[in-house]
Amino acid sequence: MKTYRFGIIGCGLMGREFGSAVARWCHLTEVDFRPEITAVCDVNPAMLGWFTSNFPGLRLATSDYRELLASDAVDCVYCAVPHDLHAPLYCDIIRAGKHLLGEKPFGIDLAANAAINACLAEHPEVFVRCSSEFPFFPPMQRLGRMIEAEAFGTLLEVNSGFLHSSDLNPAKPINWKRLVEINGEYGCLGDLGMHPCHMPFKAGWYPRNVRAILSKIVTERPDKEGHLVPCRTWDNGVLLCEALDPVTGKPFPLTIKTQRIAPGETDTWYFEVKGTRACGRWSSTNPRRLELFNYQPGADQAWQHLDMGWEAAFKGITGGIFEFGFTDCIQQMWAAFLHELHHGQPLSRFAACVTPAEVAWTHRLFTAALRSQAQGSTEVV
What we know:
Number of domains: 2
Radius of gyration: 21 Å
Number of helices: 11
CATH class of the largest domain: Alpha Beta
Order of helices and strands: EHEHEHEHEHEHEHHHEEEEEEEEEHHE
CATH architecture of the largest domain: 2-Layer Sandwich
């Protein structure tokens, strides 16, 4: 079994989730590769303790990412840092010859993303993908297979979104995701938008144009001292796009919704496809439930509800009757990254991480959305 040695830059929430996935890699039963965490880096030394306590094979814990990149004990890097650091750090990682799974949005803006892609073009030997777990839930995998089988017929509409309510409280202290100079002008689009774009883009459903409605709802938040400071990022965004189905060559409406202020939504991903022959929808509100509609002329029109078990792309020890959860989703995404790195191709079309080309499309979309909001117009993507 091939071992890939990983360094983690940014040891916060998602860095620890990766660590947990690595620690229970034996959960997966049919893979011929495994990750090993050999180095960690964070500018806050307190963030390193969880890794040094739980990973006895760790060889390096540092506050200087350059020291990590210089280590011969690191083959690959997971990088989870604020958006304004993406371009300089991602480019340094690529130049160091380390394979990279980076967090979205892969650059604070279109220019930063272009710089990352230019660096990647100079180093084609480096394997680079973007983090997004959306398609790895079993109902999403089923919908992906239906897309591949062209089961939906002519597309009527597709709706995809990521909603949460973590910013509903106006007294919540401001953090870097609410600061334009760190998070970027995209606001909620850059922070959340890669997830609802992942599945449509894998299907080849790229927006041709967009009409955006972006909302700044809480314009001030308290800082660490309790003083109100400006909160200038977009809280919520709704993108109405026209996409083209590569199978039929016909256009259809694609809506992408990202909201940080969505009452009652703890952390909700949803995806819906409506076609002339079939429809399908899923929401992480009820993560095991897949809803399907198959149209039969003359028959009653009714939705079918399927409560799916552990039917993951990468097989594991969990019995099929048991529930699939977010920690499983994280591990599936990492298995997809390593499978494509190790074998040179993804396990399947929808069991694959986001490519740099797909990320570049999100930047084109979000930049056009900013123009649309500013001008009240429909903008070409």
